[in-house]
Specification:
The complex is a heterodimer of chains A (about 280) and B (about 220).
Chain A (H helix, E strand, L loop, with lengths): L22 E9 L5 E10 L4 E5 L6 H8 L31 E3 L2 E2 L5 H7 E4 L3 H4 L5 H11 L4 H14 L15 H13 L5 E5 L7 H12 L4 E5 L3 H7 L2 E6 L2 E7 H5 L2 H6 L6 H8 L1
Chain B lengths: L15 H4 L2 H17 L5 H18 L3 H22 L6 H4 L1 H25 L2 H10 L4 H30 L10 H28 L16
Classes of the chains: A alpha/beta (about 280), B mainly alpha (about 220).
Chain lengths: ~280, ~220
């Protein structure tokens, strides 16, 4: 397997029983507002329940790709502009190009945005981007309230989700009184409170200390939904994900079983990555 | 640079003013400020009575007077400038003289400022926001204040890191940043705030925000 050779999973291996993949992306193209290309014809299919690591060098387009899964950035088969619309009919899409992303068979567009955003839980890399309320419980309840739950119900859901991440006793604290790891777990609780079927995690272990990282990995492992994890932490990819996709310069350059991808030294080096130490040690032994 | 000092007294305090309903405290403070503003210039006895009432509240609040004086001195520079600008053209100048009018402006502004300081020292900001919501202040305004409070902490942290990084590359005895450095830092902070705002907005959309702010405060509508 070489860097130039595209590694594709066999269609049979990754097809869902119902025939509808959890995530389907076709020829997704996106340019930043200044015209720089970010994604250049990305194709990706993820079946329900699968855990996929999305790896690549800085600037490869990983985070930008995640923002397309719930329509925050409206990529299409052609170049698209940034849309930050929160109104159902507020789309500014040029309407000339076809859709590029489907979640559980549902096309990601302005009309389907509320349902798509309920199904896709997006965890941002920096918890301070996600936490904006004055107390932890308010922040975790933000999603359920937006989904139309009553206040008592939203409070109950938020309490349960905080308990899942072991932070029930911090419910009334302001977010800026929490450690980085705690803020990250609050963010995860806020995402889980929306009961998503697909979790898109952007660098979930970045900046966490080893104990915080282990705790976060255990939490992610315990979640049964479909997971797409962008990361530079290849040990985590090895531990949590059966499949790995390498993205570089806005293109998928490799896609296959994690062991095969992360064991390919030539491929990894060609795309600014490094073989995980545990894998390297195993090979040297 | 953390702003935790602002909350040191309001969070977890157990004085009689801490235990009062935040709505009552908010109404009392706004009422006091309106009273102070409505006091005519030259009504020194009325101003003294208002000052005494405020001193009583400060005593009850348990806030160290030194803390209040420190903040008031910072405010004094601003209000002193204001008084110097306004007093010469004030209609009461003929009757009372410029100095007395300036003194009245400083006294009234100081009383209002100190009343606000006492309020924020005995009421957590979240409780104040909830009280404002329950008193019928428009949700948009309460939400804006809520965002401001959260982002002020984040930006203060960010500014602290930037100042630290800049100082670590400044090879002079004085730790003060010159005007050029400071303006550069503020410009970068502004740009970062803008980008942060974009990301916070994206994160809110990702959790189903449709433009309406909903909070846990209050009872269910249905």
């Amino acid at each position: 397997m070489t860097a130039d050779e595209e590694i594709s999973p066999s269609a049979a291996a990754f097809s869902d029983k119902s025939g509808i993949p959890a995530v389907r992306v076709e020829k997704l193209t996106y340019c930043y507002p200044d015209g720089r290309p970010a994604l250049n014809g990305v194709d990706l299919t993820i079946r329900s329940g699968e855990s996929v690591a999305l790896v690549g060098p800085n600037g490869a387009g990983k985070s930008t790709f995640l923002l397309h899964l719930n329509g925050i950035l409206p990529g299409t088969g052609r170049n698209a502009r940034v849309i930050h619309s929160h109104a159902a009919d507020g789309s500014k899409s040029d309407g000339k190009a076809g859709p590029a992303v489907w979640i559980d068979g549902l096309e990601v567009n302005a009309r389907n945005a509320p349902e798509v955003r309920r199904r896709v839980g997006l965890l941002f890399q920096d918890p301070d981007d996600q936490l904006f309320s004055t107390s932890v419980i308010e922040d975790v309840a933000f999603g359920p309230l937006n989904l139309g739950k009553g206040k008592a119900e939203a409070r109950r859901i938020a309490g349960e989700c905080l308990a899942r991440v072991d932070l029930a006793d911090l419910a009334d604290r302001p977010p800026h009184h929490l450690s980085f790891g705690e803020r990250k777990r609050v963010c995860l609780a806020g995402v889980l409170a929306c009961d998503p079927s697909v979790l898109a995690l952007d660098e979930p272990t970045a900046n966490l200390d080893p104990r915080g990282r282990r705790r976060f990995l255990a939490l992610i492992r315990g979640l049964g939904c479909t997971k797409l994890i962008t990361t530079h932490d290849l040990e985590m990819a090895l531990e949590l994900c059966g499949r790995t996709v390498v993205l570089d310069a806005g293109r998928v350059v490799a896609d296959g079983p994690t062991l095969a991808i992360l064991g390919d030294q030539t491929l990894l080096e060609a795309h600014g990555l490094e073989m995980p130490p545990s894998l390297k040690a195993g090979r040297e032994a | 640079m953390r702003l935790d000092a602002l909350e040191r007294h309001s969070e977890g305090g157990s004085g009689p003013l801490h235990r009062l309903d935040p709505r009552a405290k908010l109404i009392a403070t706004v009422g006091f400020i309106i009273g102070v503003v409505a006091t005519p210039s030259g009504a020194w006895r009325a101003l003294a009575a208002e000052g005494l009432a405020l001193a009583f509240a400060v005593g009850l609040s348990g806030v160290p007077p030194r803390e209040l004086i420190r903040r008031w001195l910072g405010f004094l520079a601003l209000v002193g400038f204001l008084a110097a600008m306004v007093a010469p053209g004030h209609p009461d100048r003929e009757r009372l003289g410029t100095a007395a009018v300036a003194l009245a402006i400083v006294a009234k502004n100081s009383l209002a400022f100190l009343a606000m300081m006492v309020l924020v020292h005995v009421t957590p900001f979240r409780a104040l926001l909830a009280a404002m919501g329950r008193l019928g202040v428009p949700t948009l305004m309460v939400s804006t204040l809520q965002f401001m409070e959260r982002q002020v902490h984040i930006l203060a942290d960010e500014l602290g890191r930037m100042v630290q990084a800049r100082r670590s590359r400044t090879f002079r005895r004085s730790g003060r940043l010159d005007f050029g450095q400071l303006s550069g830092l503020i410009a970068v902070l502004f740009l970062r705030s803008f980008e942060r705002g974009e990301r916070v907005h994206a994160a809110m959309l990702a959790r189903g925000w449709d433009g309406t702010i909903r909070t846990l405060d209050g009872a269910d509508e249905r």
